[in-house]
């Protein structure tokens, strides 16, 4: 599951709230061991996702780098090329 979490720092444009939420959701799924919580655990599951997303946003806003922002399309193209080689 966590293989779907992508680096979100130092991109132009910056990571969206949706991307951060999706990464937090994948993390909570991995830690909890379930992709869909039971009705009994839905509230705490969503609270955990929200809390982790807020922490991730704070982290991304606080990080500093001297490197220029990376281009999303260029990084995606490199990932597609690696995938093509890996699964060819």
């Amino acid at each position: 599951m966590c293989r779907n979490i992508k680096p979100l720092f130092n991109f132009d444009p910056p990571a969206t709230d949706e991307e951060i939420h999706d990464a937090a959701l994948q993390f909570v799924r991995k830690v909890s061991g379930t992709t869909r919580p039971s009705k009994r655990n839905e509230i705490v599951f969503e609270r955990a996702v929200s809390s982790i997303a807020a922490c991730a946003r704070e982290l991304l806003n606080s990080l500093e780098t001297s490197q220029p922002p990376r281009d999303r399309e260029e990084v995606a193209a490199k990932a597609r090329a690696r995938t093509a080689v890996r699964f060819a």
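The helical segments are 17-32, 42-62, 72-86. The chain has three helices and two strands.
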